[in-house]
Amino acid sequence: MGRSVKDFDLPIVYLIVAEDRLTEKREILDELAVTVPLEDYSAATTLNEEQLAAYDIIMDCINFEQSVIFFIDGPGGTGKTY
Ligand SMILES: Nc1ncnc2c1ncn2[C@@H]1O[C@H](COP(=O)(O)OP(=O)(O)OP(=O)(O)O)[C@@H](O)[C@H]1O
């Protein structure tokens, strides 16, 4: 009892957060801070039929702010990660 976090030799973390985002979880803030490579924005145009079907469903949920968990299953090398 009575010890401060400053008593430990921890790195100082500075995080500038917009006021309307103060209540968001750190994991969400970390994801929002990721810089998306330009080519990733056009990657949707290269998806095959099955990937596009999954992509459209996922993007609809994102755009309509629905909380959904997706489980994508398939044999190795069939393009799940792509
Ligand atoms: N639509 C696509 N256009 C071009 N290349 C693709 C496409 N989909 C997948 N690929 C390529 O096919 C290969 C396998 O894809 P990916 O790694 O996404 O498969 P995976 O199902 O995630 O594999 P694993 O289950 O083994 O991790 C990768 O080299 C990927 O770049």
From TrEMBL:
<keyword id="KW-0547">Nucleotide-binding</keyword>
<dbReference type="GO" id="GO:0000723">
    <property type="term" value="P:telomere maintenance"/>
</dbReference>
<dbReference type="GO" id="GO:0016787">
    <property type="term" value="F:hydrolase activity"/>
</dbReference>
<dbReference type="GO" id="GO:0006281">
    <property type="term" value="P:DNA repair"/>
</dbReference>
<dbReference type="Pfam" id="PF05970">
    <property type="entry name" value="PIF1"/>
</dbReference>
<dbReference type="InterPro" id="IPR010285">
    <property type="entry name" value="DNA_helicase_pif1-like_DEAD"/>
</dbReference>
<dbReference type="GO" id="GO:0006310">
    <property type="term" value="P:DNA recombination"/>
</dbReference>
<feature type="domain" description="DNA helicase Pif1-like DEAD-box helicase">
    <location>
        <begin position="46"/>
        <end position="82"/>
    </location>
</feature>
<dbReference type="InterPro" id="IPR027417">
    <property type="entry name" value="P-loop_NTPase"/>
</dbReference>
<keyword id="KW-0378">Hydrolase</keyword>
<keyword id="KW-0233">DNA recombination</keyword>
<protein>
    <recommendedName>
        <fullName>ATP-dependent DNA helicase</fullName>
        <ecNumber>5.6.2.3</ecNumber>
    </recommendedName>
</protein>
<dbReference type="GO" id="GO:0005524">
    <property type="term" value="F:ATP binding"/>
</dbReference>
<keyword id="KW-0234">DNA repair</keyword>
<keyword id="KW-0067">ATP-binding</keyword>
<comment type="similarity">
    <text>Belongs to the helicase family.</text>
</comment>
<dbReference type="GO" id="GO:0043139">
    <property type="term" value="F:5'-3' DNA helicase activity"/>
</dbReference>
<keyword id="KW-0227">DNA damage</keyword>
<keyword id="KW-0347">Helicase</keyword>
